[in-house]
Design brief:
The structure holds two protein chains of two kinds. Chain A is mostly helical. Chain A has three helices and no strands. The longest helix of chain A has 31 residues. The relative contact order of chain A is 0.06. Chain B has a single domain, classed as Four Helix Bundle (Hemerythrin (Met), subunit A) (Up-down Bundle). The radius of gyration of chain B is 20 Å and the shape is elongated. The chains are: A mainly alpha, B mainly alpha.
Chain lengths: 103, 203
């Protein structure tokens, strides 16, 4: 294969997503200095993090351009690991109510 | 067409067994690894969240200098994802020199990130916060340490792939798979940044 000349634009085509990710990070830093409640701040930051991760998954990791069969093969694996993770939720919530580290 | 090229295309033909669903097995394996590793980080971040909420006198040690350092780290890591995309696309276009330049840039940015990360750690050491100094230290150094380990493994992987891709023994498919890993490291940081740093700013 030889150089096709397209590679000069490879970075440019991802620049919008790159700038959006930087903007979201900037918003997170800004919000961190505002007077939100602890729980409210965590909720907002977590939502923004999910937004960033979705953009990264879809465009940087090319999931939006992948074959549907890749999606379909990953869904059962994801459900399986989430179910396994689910086994720790109940213990965690029980411990949370016990508040073992509270003074 | 060489065996490696056939494997890269995901169509085994007579030489290599075809992968299920017409997805290259290498890529599918990396995705499965990413899912399992995401759950590892998810569990650790969940445990951190529990400790953070359940501990009323949680330390909030990050002053302005730390936050500026972390902002720089974030900028560097997101930029390294962009250069990694450049490497993947250049390799797919067959532009090997450009792909290698992008891979080199990604490694340099990764090392800058690691350097800033270690500087951040030493700043906390100066404040008396260590792995053995309590819940905050244990949670912080465990999470950021695991992420830094992923970054360093990524640098090694990028170096090996760049060297072998340069010599022709690896294909653009290998560069793409390594890129998936690198973007995952970036993705994890998007959760570590707000949950570990931005909710612990000193007021």
């Amino acid at each position: 294969m030889c150089a096709s000349g397209k590679s000069g634009n490879v970075v440019a085509k991802y620049l919008p997503v790159y700038f959006v990710l930087l903007a979201i990070a900037g918003i997170e830093f800004f919000l961190a200095y505002q007077n939100f409640s602890k729980a409210g701040l965590v909720r907002i930051l977590f939502a923004l993090a999910i937004g960033s991760a979705t953009l990264g998954l879809m465009y940087f990791m090319h999931l939006v351009h992948e074959k549907r069969s890749l999606f379909l093969s990953l869904i059962p694996a994801t459900i399986f690991v989430l179910l396994m993770l689910n086994m720790i939720w109940s213990d965690s919530i029980r411990l949370l109510h016990m508040r073992p580290f509270a003074h | 067409m060489s065996e490696s090229e056939m494997a890269m295309l995901g169509h085994g033909g007579m030489l290599v067994e075809g992968s299920p669903y017409s997805i290259p097995s290498r890529k599918l394996t990396m995705w499965l690894f990413i899912i399992s590793d995401a759950v590892t980080f998810g569990a650790i971040l969940f445990a951190y969240g529990y400790l953070r909420v359940a501990t009323p006198d949680w330390q909030t040690p990050f002053k302005s200098a730390s936050i500026i350092n972390v902002a720089t780290m974030t900028f560097v890591l997101i930029t390294s994802s962009l250069t990694m995309l450049g490497a993947v696309d250049a390799s797919k276009d067959g532009d090997k020199p450009k792909a290698l330049r992008f891979l080199g840039s990604t490694m340099v940015l990764a090392l800058i990130f690691a350097g800033l990360h270690i500087r951040e750690w030493f700043g906390l050491f100066d404040q008396g916060i260590k792995l053995s100094s309590g819940l905050f230290g244990q949670a912080f150094f465990s999470i950021t340490g695991l992420h830094l380990l992923h970054v360093l493994i990524g640098v090694v992987a990028l170096a090996v792939v760049a060297r072998k891709y340069s010599s022709g023994s690896l294909t653009p498919g290998h560069v793409e798979t390594t890129g998936l890993y690198w973007h995952f490291v970036d993705l994890v940081w998007m959760f570590v940044l707000p949950l570990v740093y931005l909710t612990n700013i000193a007021r």
